[in-house]
Amino acid sequence: MTMTKLENCLFAVVLLVGLAAAQKEVPMPKDLPPYGPEKPLQTPNVKTTTLNNGLTIWLVSEPGLPKVALTVEVRGGLAADPENRPGISQLLSKTIDQGTKSRSARQVAQELQGAGGDFSAFATKDSLEVSTAVLSAKTATALGVLADVVQNASFPDGEVDLAKRNLADSLDQQEAEPRFLASRARDRVMFGKHPYHVMSATKESVATATPADLRDIFAQRFRPDQALLVAVGDFQSDKMLDAVQAVFGSWKAPARPSVALPANPPTTVEHAVFFVPRPGSVQTTIEFAAFGPKRGDPDYEPAEVANAVYGGTFSSRLVANIREDKGYTYSPYAFLRPYRAAGELVSHADVRNEVTGASLNEIQYELTRLTTTSPTDEELTKAKRYLVGSEAVNLQDRGSLAQTLATLWVAGLQPDEIGARGRRVSATTTADVNAAARKYFAPHQAAIIAVGEEKVVREELAPFGLSVRAVP
Questions:
Q1: β-pairing verdict for 447-452 and 273-277
Q2: Backbone φ and ψ of 86, nearest 5°
Q3: pTM of the predicted model, to two decimals?
Q4: Environment class of residue 326 by beta-carbon count within 10 Å: exposed (0-12), middle (13-18) or buried (19+)?
Q5: Directed axis angle between helix 300-310 and helix 356-372, to 10°?
Q6: Over the range 16-30, which residues count as b (16 or more CB within 10 Å of their CB) and which as e?
Q7: Which residues, other chains included, contact 226 with Cβ-Cβ below 8 Å and sequence gap of 6+?
Q8: Residue 22 and residue 458: Cα distance in Å, rounded?
């Protein structure tokens, strides 16, 4: 899986801010006023219910803008794929709207576009998601199409063949992207043989996948007792529930068992350099990857704040060090990514070949500094306000709110987690950050992924005395 929508937006902001700063350095005004009062992050008013067939319904009525976002989430994603078909969920997500028992691919697209929306589908490690956002006056139409797709997708042979060719071409392109190579290597190193090691389809799994494979996986996973429907937007909750009942109420769960959720993955990783060759590369992609907390763990928010201080914001220590001060890289970043059964803590930097070793040294330094020195009051305040503020901005978009709620459901959490998270972030203390930093951020707990020219990587990293080996 690639970065989330919010991570992509924040990454784009980092690039734009960096470009502006590179064009002209503007000094900050002196004697800036103090921060204004902090506005707590509020949990949206979510009406929850469950239909007789087991389908969970979360409705968020937000009158005003005449739009409605609809999302259906089902348990079982990339980590549930058959061992001989790794990443087939990715192919399923690209073909699920390509025809049903009563609609062609063209009809599905035309009806949703006529309602003011488009169809979106993607696979994560833990789930499959389909969604659309339409004009509120066309909600009934969109619900009918969405219900038809998730109950009756037919995976026509011709459409599957076309999707396989397109996905194979996309995989070829990704093989040239250092970030993709690093992400794939990272998950293999961290998760070993655990199903979480799958982050994308392979050319082999795509080539051997058949429409029958897709129909079988679809029949197992798309079932009401393992699904959530989220609706956010301009509607009355009672009328929306009646409309949902009308098109989803007859959906029946099959007799076969539901998909088995993966067991708990490893919790430690070897501290070594795992090398991915990229001949002729003029830069090295470096990642430090360690296990972090899951969403809902007691120290998840302190770890978020610690990461924001360390490398998760444009004003973080890592950015100030290897971008602003030393100019080793343009946009380093760090992120905490939780899954249902694990969490990843990742530092990333694309650096010039000649500063590969120096960059690794500074990343280690900043990780060590975080574990041994407390953040200043200013760092703590900025980090907490950034986390609460960026989440508040993200949740203004109805599609993003629907996706956030769906992600909580996959993790086994309730809608009130949104407000609870905001309160926990705001209440995080220096001692909380210090404890999370010592637990998760020590550099010796991380595997190091290096993508680049082999001679450069080996020579630049030789002084560190680390084992350099191929990715398992």
A1: parallel
A2: -60, 130
A3: 0.91
A4: middle
A5: 130
A6: eebeeeeeeeeeeee
A7: 54, 74, 75, 76, 253, 258, 259
A8: 32
Position 22 scores a pLDDT of 46
138: which 2 tokens?
């066309």
Instruction: Chunk the chain into consecutive blocks of 10 residues (it has 472) and report each block's average pLDDT, rounded to whole numbers.
Output: 47 48 59 79 93 98 96 97 96 98 97 96 98 97 98 98 97 96 98 96 97 97 97 97 98 92 91 97 98 96 98 96 96 96 97 98 98 97 96 95 97 96 96 98 98 97 96 91
> Burial, 4: exposed, middle or buried (Cβ in 10 Å; 0-12, 13-18, 19+)?
middle
Kindly give the residue spans of alpha helices, DSSP state H, lying in 115-156. Answer: 139-152
Residue whose structure tokens are 């250092």: 178
Q: What is the DSSP string of 25-89?
A: --PPPSSPPPP-PPPPPPPP-EEEEE-TTS-EEEEEE--SSSEEEEEEEEE--GGGS-TTSTTHH
Identify the pLDDT of residue 333. Answer: 97
Q: How far apart are CA 207 and CA 165, in angstroms?
A: 9
Q: What is the pLDDT of residue 34?
A: 80
The alpha-carbon radius of gyration of the chain (Å, integer) is: 23
Q: What is the DSSP string of 310-357?
A: HTSSTTSHHHIIIIIIT-SBS--EEEEEE-SS-EEEEEEEEEEGGGHH
290 close to 445: Cβ distance less than 8 angstroms: yes
The per-residue DSSP string of 445-464 comes to: G-EEEEEE-HHHHHHHHGGG
E strands present in 154-268: 227-233
The residues, any chain, with a CB within 8 Å of residue 468's CB and separated by 6 or more, are 272, 273, 275, 450, 457, 458, 461
Quick check: 78 and 437 in contact, CB under 8 A?
A: no
Q: How far apart are CA 175 and CA 179, in angstroms?
A: 9
Domains of the chain: 46-248 (3.30.830.10), 264-470 (3.30.830.10)
How many CB atoms neighbour CB 289 within 10 A?
A: 24
Q: What SS3 state is found at 98? A: coil
For residues 193 and 228, give the distance between their C-alpha atoms in angstroms, rounded to a whole number.
Answer: 29
